[in-house]
Amino acid sequence: MALTVEDLVRDFKLEVSSGHDGLNSEITNPQLTRPGIELAGLFDFFEHDRVQIFGSKEVTFFGWLTEEDKEIRVEMLFEKRPPAFIFSKHVDIPEVFNRMGDKYNIPVLKSYLRTSSLFSKLYQHLYGRLAPRKSIHGTLVDINGIGVLIKGKSGVGKSEVALELVKRGHQLVADDRVDVYQKEVGTLVGEAPRLLREHLEIRGIGIVNVVKLFGASAFKEYMDVMLIVDLVQWDDSVDYDRLGLDSETTRIFDTDVVSVKVPITAARSVPSLIEVAAMNTRLKALGTNMAKDFTDAISEEIKNKNTKKKS
Questions:
Q1: Does the annotation count 133 as an active-site position?
Q2: Mean pLDDT of 242-268
Q3: What is the pTM of this model?
Q4: Pick the catalytic residue: 50, 151, 158, 220?
Q5: 224 part of the active site
Q6: 64 and 169: one domain?
């Protein structure tokens, strides 16, 4: 889905100072630029396809230029046709920028964030919106800081499990469809499509809004995917892992995510099992492997008994 300057205005509550006719322009590069050397006249390395950020440093330097240089440099900036210019909280937009914004139909915007905060938040937002994505059939829940992606065949009960987890105080991120992108190698972020946010589909009941049912704390906009739980119907012919020593992973983009297969029956409390799986994942991340500790303890006990027999 294309990202336009108008989307940015809405998401960051920006004030449009000029260039209103260019709000439908697309943003294709998540990188940002603060044009300092360009104001000094060097355009050899100007990244024209990036959103341009102006803070107090850039505007102060701009004020030192002669009126003639101001006109020349600003027009050169606009001639390269970047998607937009954004001025941060404590700076005034020079008149020449507003004039050129209307002339070239390039939006000149005003933010109420400080420059450093604007730059970092805007970069994260753009990277998240423009990064390659995969849509995965499943439900994503934040369980005590562990993002758990619940997968399984249609009708296995993923949404019902998520509903119970939300009732226990955990947070829903996405149901039915999870949009996943790689923030960096080793970090996957999942979120719900805009139209599906806050909603769960419960068979026999219909669509429910978890925020209206349980309050704002029941929903989270995005979450790192740290564990994949695959729900499968119990099969007596399958030899399921009983110790947890074997660690399986699922590769999404360039990132391997820990995966577990949880067989379900009417007698098993699936929400409790998923909670334990999430807590176990957290312990492993902190360096504690309960399965290994258990097998090590058994090995030590056997070793001690054999030593006693020999003596």
A1: no
A2: 86
A3: 0.73
A4: 158
A5: no
A6: no
